[in-house]
Amino acid sequence: MPEISRFLGMVIAMFFADHSPPHFHVRYGDRKATVAIDPPGVLSGSLPPRVLGLVVEWATLHREELQADWDRARALSPLEPIAPLE
After folding, report:
1. What angle do the packed helices 49-61 and 63-74 form, to 10 degrees?
2. Are strands 31-36 and 41-45 parallel, antiparallel or unpaired?
3. Which DSSP category does 17 fall into?
4. pLDDT tens for each residue of 7-30
5. Sites in the chain below the pLDDT cut of 70
6. How far apart, in Å, do the first and last CA atoms of the chain sit?
7. What is the structure's pLDDT at 1?
8. pLDDT score, position 20
9. In a 3-state reduction of DSSP, which class is residue 9?
């Protein structure tokens, strides 16, 4: 699973040729979640509330980049890194 961003202990990644709806995966310690791109929200798994808030903030700021990486992943093309939350 290619990593596209990393910040504050979170690792954000996408699978190639993954199923719809457009989403990304978050790992934080031993917690994992699948998060929709638009609108950002947990599809499966769980994260601590503070971490989820930061992920949603990051996803909202980078929605277009996430969608572009989703399209690349579906086409089996290399993914572009996305800036971390600052």
Report:
1. 80
2. antiparallel
3. T
4. 999 999 999 988 899 999 999 999
5. none
6. 24
7. 76
8. 92
9. coil
Q: Give the DSSP per-residue string, 21-83.
A: SPEEEEEETTEEEEEETTTTEEEEE---HHHHHHHHHHHHHTHHHHHHHHHHHHTTPPPPP-P
Token pair for 2? 């290619």
Domain ranges in the chain? 3-74
Distances (CA, A) of 54 to 10, 12, 28, 32: 10, 12, 12, 14
Query: Are 70 and 37 a contacting pair, CB within 8 Å?
Result: yes
CA distance 72 to 31: 26
Give Cα 18 distance to the centre of its chain.
13
